[in-house]
Amino acid sequence: MAVFVVIFGVVLGVCLCSTALLRWNEMRYRKKGLPPGTMGWPVFGETTEFLKQGPGFMKNQRTRYGSCFKSHILGCPTIVSMDPEVNRYILMNESKGFVPGYPQSMLDILGKCNIAAVHGSTHRHMRGALLALVSPSMIREQLLPKIDEFMRSHLSKWDDKVIDIQEKTNEMALLSSLKQIAGIESGSMSQAFVPEFFKLVVGTLSLPINLPSTNYHRGFEARKNIVSMLRQLIEKRKGSQETPNDMLSLLMNGEGNRYKLTDEEIIDQIITILYSGYETVSTTSMMAIKYLHDHPRVLEELRKEHLTIRERKRPDDPINWDDYKSMRFTRAVIYETSRLATIVNGVLRKTTQEMELNGECPGFVIPKGWRIYVYTREINYDPCLYPEPLTFNPWRWLDKSLDTQNYFIFGGGTRQCPGKELGIAEISTFLHYFVTRYRWEEVGGDKLMKFPRVEAPNGLHIRVSSY
Ligand code: HEM
């Protein structure tokens, strides 16, 4: 009996303390004008529920509180907006007081001149310098030939092998960028660079705790090594008479370029390009292979498009701009893959002053310094925009009546992805060589995670044979 009373007392005590803590935390954030919602536990907020339940958590909260609600996730009080009108307003109006709100570890490791760490005129300057490197004419004249050469070689000798397509698309995205940026081919420099880059990526997604065994610390060390390698490359270029035809030369050539950058800015710009184009391009490519495998009719149509291109060429002729522009169905496959897999769940912003929201959430006030999660995932599955939203149907993108103004897979407004066309060109060239050279089947048994990132935790293994 005594034992029972003690246990009952402990349980009651824990319950009362928990309720008091939760209530106290709610009171702290109770402010006139804030959207409804719950703030969870002190410090941790609702991060565990968010990461565990993923999109389910977001949908539940929306059902309870509407399209704009408050929460406390990933270490910060946050307003989640799932309202298309509010989302568009936030993306289009950075100058009114919305700066990027990415986690501290990301900003620390990517560098203080990284595009996500700057705003106002500095952002315009860094973005201008970047857009000059990835413009359609640059893709046509300089980048596409390099991408083609890279893909031809990267996708050779896969027949009669079991490969992990996730590993291959990861390598593809990084090595292809290294070639475009500094002509770095698979060799000693890329061998030293690649593992450091992977550590850097993991570090940006970790908690900012700088202890020797943490991913954050390793990411930071990896940044130092990468900066040192890039600095050596810059110094070598300065002491050389040659001007290689690559992005680094363009960035260093201040006279011909109205966006002159310092060496430090050039290094952060290169890290930005590598980082921003890495996971997006590799994951979209992997998921396209997955969906094509599961939808033979789509694969047949895609292959037809690429075989038609090959028919008018000699075997060694590269893909040129006109070929790329003719890949209408391929582009539809890439859009549909990005939509259905939701490669990007949304983007993060932070308020620099108190802001009032309009749209479906009129009158709500966001305090200064709060994060806003412009959560665009659910729009991708809206049956009013995309009939039978869970079906992989690239043909929908060829229908002229499709309303794409809510398609935010490449973001929107002043931070809309400057690498969109380059990314699509890379994925299209990858698919070109893959479907014209090979057929494939899944080995089976691999798991795919959809949230918070799309990934195959143990790889996605396929058996490849020549077509
Ligand atoms: C399928 C491929 C890609 C997808 C889905 C994608 C998606 C996005 C999204 C959603 C944003 C907006 C972020 C925000 O508003 O905070 C963005 C920004 C950005 N992307 Fe991409 N991206 C892709 C490929 C690339 C590539 C290849 C590059 C390389 C140049 C690149 C460079 C950037 C940069 C630098 C930004 C920041 C722009 C700024 O803050 O002004 N992206 N991307």
From TrEMBL:
Asked whether the keyword Iron is assigned, the reply is yes
Cofactor requirement: heme
An example of a GO molecular function for this protein is:
monooxygenase activity
List the catalytic activities from the record: 6alpha-hydroxycastasterone + reduced [NADPH--hemoprotein reductase] + O2 = castasterone + oxidized [NADPH--hemoprotein reductase] + 2 H2O + H(+); 6-deoxocastasterone + reduced [NADPH--hemoprotein reductase] + O2 = 6alpha-hydroxycastasterone + oxidized [NADPH--hemoprotein reductase] + H2O + H(+)
The positions annotated for binding heme are 417
Which InterPro entries has this protein been placed in?
Answer: Cyt_P450, Cyt_P450_CS, Cyt_P450_E_grp-I, Cyt_P450_sf
The record's principal subcellular location, in a coarse class, is: membrane
Q: Which Pfam families match?
A: p450
Instruction: Extract the coiled-coil ranges from the record.
Output: none
Q: Where in the cell is it found?
A: Membrane
User: What GO CC terms are in its UniProt record?
Assistant: membrane
Describe its membrane topology.
Single-pass membrane protein
Q: Name one GO biological process term.
A: sterol metabolic process
Matching Gene3D superfamilies, A to Z?
Cytochrome P450
Similarity section: Belongs to the cytochrome P450 family.
Q: What is this protein called?
A: C6-oxidase
